[in-house]
Design goal:
The chain is built from five helices and eleven strands, in the order ββαβαβαββαββββαβ. The chain has 197 residues and is an alpha/beta fold. The protein has a single domain, classed as DHBP synthase (Alpha-Beta Complex). α5 links the parallel β10 and β11. 41% of the residues are buried.
């Protein structure tokens, strides 16, 4: 039921067990986050994604983007905790390209809920000192050292969030740090069309 600060391949995150409703509520209160903003889930491997999501794209597409600095938004399955993002039928899935995070996710019985280690609407954090105001409310802080270039604003963009829930289409929810290569893969290799918003 605890909240743990963790390094990822993009920014520092706060993780808890996604199937633990009390822990999920704790993440919202820690961040002062609007309850209508969804949390992503974090898994260790692409294979585990099929348990928590209805996948309507080729597995090869998943493997081209994951693990990596991308969050894929898909239809959620019945397996996922109903208290996690109860207001939407979709869920964002993250498999960070970070050996520690993948090992941690594999060691947990279910998915992790994952969000950035900061107060909502403040900048993302690239070192543990940048969110020390949150430490007292965390069960554990895992210091993976600085992530990326602390001076570079691009490094704080977080993952690129792509909605793949509509067959044959994609829409970018957040440009993030991997927009260009992600769009190139989706359009050129898989022929997906950008959804007009």
């Amino acid at each position: 039921g605890g909240l743990v600060a963790v390094p990822t391949d993009t920014v520092y995150g706060v993780a808890c067990l996604a199937q633990d409703s009390a822990a999920v509520r704790s993440i919202y209160s820690l961040k002062g986050r609007n309850g209508a903003k969804p949390l992503a889930i974090c898994l260790g491997d692409v294979e585990r994604l099929y348990r928590y999501c209805h996948v309507n794209v080729p597995e090869e597409l998943l493997r081209d983007l994951l693990p990596g600095p991308v969050t894929l938004v898909l239809e959620r399955s019945e397996e996922l905790n109903k208290d996690l993002n109860p207001f939407t039928s979709l869920v964002g899935v993250r498999i960070p390209d970070h050996p520690f995070m993948r090992d941690l996710a594999r060691a947990c019985p279910g998915p992790l809920a994952l969000t950035s280690a900061n107060i909502s609407s403040q900048g993302s954090t690239l070192s543990v000192l940048e969110f020390q105001d949150l430490w007292p409310q965390l069960s554990l802080v895992v210091d993976g050292g600085p992530i990326g270039d602390i001076q570079s604003p691009e490094c704080r963009l977080g993952s690129t969030v792509v909605d793949l829930s509509v067959s044959g289409k994609f829409s970018i929810i957040r440009p993030g740090c991997a927009l260009t290569p992600t769009v190139e893969i989706l359009k050129k290799k898989y022929g997906l069309e950008p959804e007009s918003s």
